[in-house]
């Protein structure tokens, strides 16, 4: 980064946090690279896996970063994020898994992909009937990849009461999935529904899919 002070000043904003434990792990692995001091960690989104993004982490010489990449320093580590992924990675954290028996790294991301992007949506009937079709045809097939599902428990006028079940029950991230993922999709596909109420007992459930 030396000799590029203007670039450094413009890109000091931390988009994705890195915990101390994850930092130590990354630096340990990076030490085996040919030129570790000039090697940064590129973090990019490669797609979606149901209600979660899919990621790719790779080492890259900092000098090979693209002109529009977002580059910032976390202690001794340079983090490189593609411009197109900035919004979707903003507020995320790179960490070690909560389960010590699980290897690798995890990204805890409050943002969710749009599971309806590119989908051919045809809904008919009352708002409740449309919502049930949306759940059956588009939302639940994606949630099933994580062992979970969303169930319409009740319609009160234009207010939908949704329960997250299966692997989503007892999952600390399922509330975020509902608020930031499913609610947005319902609002886009069925604007007649004015509110979504989460009726899930998030304290219940065992062995949630998402670790926190």
Structure description:
By secondary structure, the chain is an alpha/beta fold. The protein folds into two domains: 5-108, HesB-like domain (Hypothetical Protein Aq_1857, Chain: A, Sandwich); 127-198, Fe-S cluster assembly (FSCA) (GMP Synthetase, Chain A, domain 3). 25% of the residues lie in helices and 28% in strands. The chain has five helices and ten strands; from the N terminus they run αβαββββαββαββαβ. It has helices at 5-10, 20-30, 86-89, 127-143, 174-189; strands spanning 17-18, 39-49, 52-61, 70-74, 77-81, 93-95, 106-108, 148-156, 159-166, 195-198. The protein has a four-stranded mixed β-sheet with strand order 3-2-5-4. A three-stranded mixed β-sheet has the order 1-6-7. A hairpin with a 2-residue loop joins strand 4 and strand 5 (77-81). The longest helix is centred in the middle third of the chain and has 17 residues, at 127-143. 29% of the residues are buried.
In short:
The protein is an alpha/beta fold and 212 residues long.
């Amino acid at each position: 980064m030396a000799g590029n002070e203007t670039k450094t000043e413009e890109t000091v904003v931390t988009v994705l946090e890195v915990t101390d434990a994850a930092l130590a792990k990354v630096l340990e692995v990076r030490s085996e690279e040919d030129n570790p001091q000039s090697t940064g960690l590129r973090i990019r989104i490669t797609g979606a896996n149901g209600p979660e993004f899919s990621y790719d982490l790779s080492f890259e010489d900092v000098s090979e970063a693209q002109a529009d990449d977002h580059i910032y320093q976390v202690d001794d580590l340079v983090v490189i994020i593609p411009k197109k992924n900035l919004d979707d990675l903003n507020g995320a954290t790179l960490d070690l898994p909560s389960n010590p028996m699980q290897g690798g790294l995890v990204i805890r991301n409050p943002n969710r992909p749009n599971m309806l992007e590119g989908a051919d949506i045809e809904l008919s009937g009352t708002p409740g009937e449309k919502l049930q079709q949306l759940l059956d045809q588009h939302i639940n097939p994606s949630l099933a990849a994580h062992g979970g599902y969303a169930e319409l428990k009740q319609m009160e006028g234009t207010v939908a009461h949704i329960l997250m079940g299966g692997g989503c029950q007892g999952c600390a991230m399922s509330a975020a999935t509902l608020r930031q993922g499913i609610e947005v999709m319902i609002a886009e596909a069925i604007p007649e529904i004015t509110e979504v109420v989460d009726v899930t007992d998030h304290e219940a459930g065992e062995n949630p899919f998402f670790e926190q």
